Amino acid sequence: MMGKQSLRKDDCLESVIEEYSTMVYRLAVSQTGNRTDADDVFQEVFLRYIRRERSFESEEHRKAWLIRVTVNCCKNYFNSAWMKKTVSQLADCDMYGYFVSGGIMTDGPWQVTFPLGER
After folding, report:
1. Can you give the CATH number for the domain in which 22 is found?
2. Which residue range(s) make up the domain with 32?
3. Phi-psi region at 23: left, alpha or beta (left = phi > 0; alpha = psi -120 to 50)
4. What count of other Cβ atoms lies within 10 Å of the Cβ of residue 3?
5. 46-72 tens-digit pLDDT
6. In a shared domain, residues 74 and 117
């Protein structure tokens, strides 16, 4: 059993997404700094909207709720264990995404030795 879920039958989901998608996406891009992470946040925001059980008092209430949830999802995304692990791993990569260990590129098609500067 999936538990309590709402499919938002009280309003047309397509029209709400059409009305607020640009706002939510732009806010997510501005908060995350890139489109890939913004896509994840965008999906999460509208999934939460679909699952929300209570109705809104007005369109202003709906808009404020979407803004608040978008900001909170961005914060949650950056505080997630997955994001913390990914960011720490990226610190060990060079600009092409190869892992650098002791001056040797270990994941590239070639292993190249070069001096590492002070960090």
Report:
1. 1.10.1740
2. 13-79
3. alpha
4. 5
5. 999 999 888 889 999 999 999 999 999
6. no
